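Q: I have 161 residues here and want to know how they pack in 3D. Can you give me a structure?
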Amino acid sequence: MKAGRSLKWVVLFGACVLAAIALVIVVKGWGFGRKPTLGDPSRGAGLYAENCASCHGANLEGQPNWRSPGEDGVLPAPPHDRTGHTWHHGDGMLFDYTKLGGAETLKRTGVTGVNSGMPGFGDSLSDQGIWDILAFIKASWPQRERELQQQRTLAERMKGN
């Protein structure tokens, strides 16, 4: 009995130590290339209107038939509201997709056969501006989608992406 109880406490202690280490890694951003800053959704709304709404829609609704390539083989701009797939991706992917553009980000992640029409905004938006736009987009999602997207961001960070 005593040995079983001791083992239980050792396992519990070990789990607590690992959880504490993981928390420090996430909070400090150790080992991660892109550490998001807090975005400002109010500022992001203006930047979204100036840079994104012409393709993704003023209400984040995207273009019609966004899941199917157009005649030119390019995928239309998807919605960024809860009906789209933006919330399916972690912060690092969303940041890179916005900064570098779809083609470059997909190439860097090894994705082939997808013809993204998303241009890169790294020359026209600051990193903070990109985080502000992402904060604006995320603010439109219901709680469930925000929580799922946060889980994907944590998983992405744990992989070192």
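Q: Anything worth noting?
A: The mean pLDDT is 85. Residues 1-30 form one domain.
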